[in-house]
Amino acid sequence: MAAALSALPRAASRLAPCGRRPNLRALCAAAAAGEASKSKRRLVLYTKPGCCLCDGLKEKLHAASLLAGTPYSLASLELQERDITTNPEWERLYQYEIPVLAKVLPDGTEEILPRLSPRLSVELIQKKICSVFDQ
């Protein structure tokens, strides 16, 4: 982040009208907001005990969050697991669909994501999850 902030004055001077100094406070606030929005990346995994597909996806999501050396970092990803057997509504909705992965939107609602194939590599899962948050 320090490198990004050091580049702000140069980038802002190109955007500011002639003879005016750029508003660095506004630029820093915008940079911090961008950083904060990345830190609030949340997913919900609907699962149940004994589900081998769920266990496989959990392992791959965990491995993808630890994967380094790629441009698709999931270090700030927050994954919440929900056991559908603890809530009759979840069980009714997802009993034949698990594992179900949902993105938590800024307003708290959830957007169900397309099913990830159990054959996908950890790297591809990392890339797909990252693309969900970059939209």
From TrEMBL:
Organism: Panicum hallii
Descriptive protein name: Glutaredoxin-like protein
Signal sequence, renumbered to the chain: none
InterPro entries: Glutaredoxin-like, Glutaredoxin-like_YDR286C, Thioredoxin-like_sf
Tagged with keyword Electron transport: yes
Keywords, in A-Z order: Electron transport, Transport
SUPFAM superfamilies: Thioredoxin-like
Family named by the database record: Belongs to the glutaredoxin family.
Domain of life: Eukaryota
Gene3D superfamilies the UniProt entry points to: Glutaredoxin (3.40.30.10)
